[in-house]
Amino acid sequence: MKSFTFHIPVQLFCGELLSYQKEFAGIGSKALIITGKSSAKNGSLNDVLQILSGSSVEHVLFDKIEENPSLETVDTAAELAKKEGIDFIIAIGGGSPLDAAKAISLLVKNKHLKAKDLYTPMNIKGFPMIAIPTTAGTGSEVTPFSILTIHEKKTKQSIANNIFFDKAFLDGRYMMDLPENYTLSTALDILSHLVEGYLTSKVNFLSDRIAESGFLAYGKLFPNLLNRDFNLEVRNNLLCVSSLAGMVITHSKTSLPHQLGYFLTYNHHVPHGFANTVLIAEFMKFHQDKDKVNTILQLLGVKNLEELRSIINSLIVFDFKITKEEIVEYSQLAFNNKSRLTIHPYPIELQDIVTIFERSLLK
Ligand code: NAP
Ligand code: FE
């Protein structure tokens, strides 16, 4: 067995948030709440405010995190937090607020830095952080990654400084009104994390065993996803599998579909989960480790790659157009990022990327 380290320093609390009030004590005296608009409607923000109001902890609210948060938004929130003298962060929402919170935490603690500086690896730490995910997909509550939109580069990229949440609370009740398209997109993000995280050059014994248990649990949810049956138990199960998949990619990273999917999100507004998963079947077909690909299919409980492709296609509820020229342009950009390509365990040619794109997207 190759040597490896395994590190997930996040405490997870599953169940009703209000039953964990005492877990909020002692973290800090003034919180920055980082969120988008939906937390004010789904009950999560109210519950957090209720918990804080029962303590002496003060708070400042920043609720302007957009989908696929930009460097500019992160800088704006960090400036507010610096002025307000906060000493911990509570992130509520999907992957966008959670990822933004990680970068903001680093910027508030290291006051001389701007968001763009976080793309240079440094030995820096952030303030303590709590996560309350309200989508089940990114696993951001257990990963150390913060993926931000760089408008200058017309794409998204993870910052170069890892940072974990200290505590995360998984309460599926906040997702009961998550619209169908976001529910499906985020649920498919989980699948892409499991598949990609099982097939990179960075896998280790534990990440593979976690991924395998994730495939087994995920396959059991296919009927619910296909029937659009999103009851509370399904929501909570999706949240847990999302965290499992997050633990996988924390160690083994994501692969080509995520790298390529960022171009689809930036240029064609394809929701993150759909953007990766639309490429997954072709990516699996292209992958040389056929034993692992077969294990994925077996554990998911599908007969073959074509059945998986057909399930995925019926879960992707988003249509967009792309030209051959755009495919070549994005493929070239991805191919130029040589260090990112080493995450794939086998050599990749430009034509391989073009082929994965074309077979997945050109009907
Ligand atoms: P999101 O961008 O956080 O949210 C998508 C939409 O859903 C937003 O409009 C949001 O509204 C709404 N929403 C969120 N929770 C809701 C709820 N409970 N009820 C109703 N509406 C709700 O989507 P996401 O897919 O969770 O996150 C995507 C981001 O995460 C991308 O930037 C992606 O690159 C990143 N990501 C990170 C990792 C990682 O390891 N860190 C992994 C994969 C992806 P509001 O925003 O207005 O609240
Ligand atoms: Fe993802």
Can you walk through the features of this model?
This protein is α/β, with parallel strands linked by helices and 363 residues long. 49% of the residues lie in helices and 10% in strands. The protein has a six-stranded parallel sheet with strand order 1-8-5-4-2-3, sandwiched between helices. Strands 6-7 form a two-stranded antiparallel sheet. The longest helix has 22 residues, at 205-226. The radius of gyration is 20 Å and the shape is globular. The relative contact order is 0.11. The mean pLDDT is 97. Residues 36-39, 42, 67-68, 93-96, 99, 134-135, 137-140, 143, 145, 147, 156, 174-175, 177-178, 182, 186, 189, 272-273 line the site of NADP nicotinamide-adenine-dinucleotide phosphate (NAP).
Q: Which helices and strands appear, and what pairs or packs with what?
A:
Layout: E1 11-14, E2 30-35, H1 44-53, E3 58-62, H2 71-84, E4 88-93, H3 95-109, E5 129-133, E6 147-150, E7 155-158, E8 167-170, H4 180-198, H5 205-226, H6 232-252, H7 256-268, H8 272-277, H9 280-286, H10 290-300, H11 305-315, H12 324-336, H13 338-341, H14 350-361
Parallel strand pairs: 1-8, 2-3, 2-4, 4-5, 5-8
Antiparallel strand pairs: 6-7
Helix pairs in contact: 2-3, 4-5, 4-6, 5-6, 5-10, 9-11, 9-14, 12-14
The structure holds NADP nicotinamide-adenine-dinucleotide phosphate and fe (iii) ion (FE).
